[in-house]
Automatic annotation (TrEMBL):
SUPFAM superfamilies recorded: lambda repressor-like DNA-binding domains
Residues in coiled coil: none
Protein name, per record: HTH cro/C1-type domain-containing protein
CDD domains hit by this protein: HTH_XRE
TM ranges: none
Signal sequence range: none
Domain HTH cro/C1-type: 2-30
MF terms in GO: DNA binding
One Pfam family recorded for the sequence: HTH_3
């Protein structure tokens, strides 16, 4: 499978301009290829594709990686749904997040200490 500059850059975590610069010999390849080599020797090489690799990068951002892995598994399942089902899930999640944010704001307002009336 071949990659164009943009795809290869995305795969290696660098911009298309960096890949182009390497091909024209105006940039040093170390950053691009070190990321690529890290990927080649990672546990995920040959097991998962670019989409899954991107999901793994996102998981690493979270403090609770087990929770993030579970959510990501659900996201990958959602990918296989039809557009109407995806919109339904998105609407539910947006509504639920909005409700939780309002609840959090209400809790913050009720927990704030009262000002003294001296």
């Amino acid at each position: 499978m071949g990659y164009n500059q943009k795809e290869f850059g995305k795969f290696c975590g660098v911009s298309q301009q960096v890949v182009s610069g390497i091909e024209t010999d105006s940039k040093k390849p170390s950053k691009t290829f070190s990321k690529f080599i890290d990927y080649l020797y990672s546990e995920t090489f040959g097991v998962v594709g670019l989409k899954e690799t991107t999901h793994l990068k996102i998981i690493s951002i979270f403090k609770d990686t087990e929770w993030a892995e579970n959510i990501n598994e659900m996201l990958l399942e959602i990918e296989g749904l039809d557009p109407d089902e995806k919109r339904e899930i998105k609407g539910y999640l947006e509504g639920k997040l909005s409700t939780l944010k309002r609840r959090t704001e209400t809790k913050k307002k009720t927990v704030q200490p009262q000002k003294s009336s001296r």
